[in-house]
């Protein structure tokens, strides 16, 4: 009963229709109308004095997913067009029709409909929390209230682009070693399952004791051959299960966030990128006029690390009771001295947003340098590891052949 009542209250589902017709003067006109059916569209147009020639339900391609990159691009396009004086609803039409991702087109049509029915832009965005977080919605709301929506959209687009750039650099730094590990595992498995058994057949009639390294490699090969149908599902299932647990289970996320900050080589990179995101987010919100205590609500989650999320909540509590931001940040003990000094200067001079922006710029540059350093460091290390692994197996299998040569 409750479901039926809710469905009735929601009303029939509406669709977008493209239409073509002639006005009272005989001029061909085209447009777009949202309604429940073609007959309803036709009736609406007739009441407006339009002679309808063609009505077609607008179709969007299947598949696709709205990514963070799509939201950043949409924000940049919306900011640019609003600065050029294009009306808001027309901006949604232009961006929606130009989007190559069908999911983005559907999302923008739904948001446009919300705005057309009287919702503010921030309220429309808040109905889609999967794509627009609290930070995004708060900045848009602040822009609407202050009458500087296009300025804040431009600032928000810059923020999104910088955060995406940092994430992309982190992923590129991690991708290379992970790809090499996967390739090394596949090559090792192929050698163990197909190549070494062929050598084993050759060594059957060797007529002498095989060297210990050769026997060890052959024993590992026998285990691979006998259990390959278990090894591959277990390895692949373990990786997928771990990634899903990391994505869905809070204890695993907390453990991994702490571990990532302590890793020997990558920990420094993760720390710098986290601080860059933290300071960039706070600078963007504070510059938009969002009160400091309210701005800290969004900052912790935007940092991307649970350690800094917990620290931000503690900072927010201290600031709300009258403690200065610098002192509150110093109390949690997760920020370098340089960040604390810059924040202190910003508070004293009344230019906190500018100082936080400079800190973010500095750490973003540090992330660039760290990624370049890790890339140059990983290449020789990976070559050594692969050389020892693959070369060790090859030498172990050729030792008996060298023994035959010495005997001859």
Task: Assign a percent range to the helix content.
Answer: over 70%
User: Which percent range describes the beta-strand content?
Assistant: 5-15%
Number of H/I helices: 16
- Return Rg in Å: 30 Å
The main β sheet shows up as: 3 strands, antiparallel
Q: In sequence order, what are the helices and strands, one letter per element?
A: HEEHEHHHHHHHHHHHHHH
- N-to-C span: 93 Å
The 3D shape can be described as flat
The chain-level structural class is mainly alpha
Count every beta strand, where a strand is a DSSP E run of 2 or more residues.
3
Largest sheet, order of strands side by side? 2-1-3
The low-confidence parts are: 1-10
Q: What does the average pLDDT come to?
A: 82
How would you portray this structure in words?
Residues 1-10 have low confidence and may be disordered. The protein has a three-stranded antiparallel beta sheet with strand order 2-1-3, covered by helices on one side. The protein is mainly α. It is 76% helix and 6% strand. The chain is flat, with a radius of gyration of 30 Å. The protein contains 16 helices and three strands.
Topology overview:
Elements: H1 2-10, E1 15-22, E2 28-35, H2 38-47, E3 51-57, H3 68-83, H4 88-98, H5 102-116, H6 121-126, H7 134-146, H8 149-203, H9 212-248, H10 250-262, H11 266-287, H12 292-302, H13 306-320, H14 325-332, H15 337-349, H16 352-407
Antiparallel strand pairs: 1-2, 1-3
Characteristic terms for this protein:
single chain; 3-stranded antiparallel β-sheet; 16 helices; about 400 residues
Give the structure's gist in a few sentences:
By secondary structure, the protein is mainly alpha-helical. It contains 16 helices and three strands. It has helices spanning 2-10, 38-47, 68-83, 88-98, 102-116, 121-126, 134-146, 149-203, 212-248, 250-262, 266-287, 292-302, 306-320, 325-332, 337-349, 352-407, and strands at residues 15-22, 28-35, 51-57.
């Amino acid at each position: 009963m409750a479901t039926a009542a809710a469905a009735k209250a929601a009303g029939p589902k509406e669709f977008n229709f493209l239409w073509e017709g002639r006005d009272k003067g005989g001029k061909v006109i085209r447009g777009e109308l949202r309604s429940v059916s073609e007959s309803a569209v036709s009736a609406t147009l007739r009441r407006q004095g339009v002679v309808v020639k063609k009505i077609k339900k607008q179709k969007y391609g299947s598949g696709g997913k709205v990514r963070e990159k799509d939201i950043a691009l949409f924000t940049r396009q919306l900011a640019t067009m609003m600065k050029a004086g294009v009306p808001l609803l027309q901006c949604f039409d232009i961006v929606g029709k130009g989007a190559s991702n069908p999911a983005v087109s559907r999302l923008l049509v739904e948001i446009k409909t919300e705005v057309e029915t009287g919702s503010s832009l921030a309220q429309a965005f808040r109905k889609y929390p999967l794509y627009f977080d609290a930070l995004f919605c708060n900045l848009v709301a602040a822009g609407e209230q202050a009458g500087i929506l296009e300025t804040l959209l431009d600032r928000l687009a810059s923020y999104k682009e910088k955060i995406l750039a940092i994430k992309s650099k982190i992923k590129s730094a991690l991708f290379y070693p992970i790809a090499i590990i996967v390739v090394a595992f596949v090559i090792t498995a192929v050698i163990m399952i197909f190549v070494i058994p062929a050598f084993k057949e050759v060594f059957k009639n060797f007529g002498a004791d095989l060297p210990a390294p050769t026997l060890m490699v052959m024993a590992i090969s026998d285990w691979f051959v006998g259990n390959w149908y278990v090894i591959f599902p277990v390895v692949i299932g373990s990786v997928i299960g771990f990634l899903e647990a990391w994505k869905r289970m809070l204890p695993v996320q907390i453990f991994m966030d702490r571990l990532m900050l302590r890793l020997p080589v990558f920990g420094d990179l993760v720390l710098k990128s986290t601080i860059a995101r933290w300071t960039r987010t706070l600078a963007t919100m504070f510059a938009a006029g969002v009160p400091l205590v309210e701005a800290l609500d969004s900052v912790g989650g935007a940092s991307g690390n649970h350690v800094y999320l917990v620290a931000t909540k503690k900072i927010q509590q201290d600031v709300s009771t009258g403690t200065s931001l610098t002192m509150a940040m110093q109390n949690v003990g997760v920020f370098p001295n340089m960040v604390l000094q810059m924040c202190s200067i910003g508070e004293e001079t009344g230019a906190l947003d500018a100082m936080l922006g400079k800190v973010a710029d500095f750490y973003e540059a540090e992330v660039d340098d760290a990624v370049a350093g890790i890339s140059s460091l990983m290449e020789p290390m990976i070559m050594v590891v692969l050389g020892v692994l693959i070369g060790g197996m090859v030498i172990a299998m050729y030792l008996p052949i060298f023994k035959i040569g010495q005997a001859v």
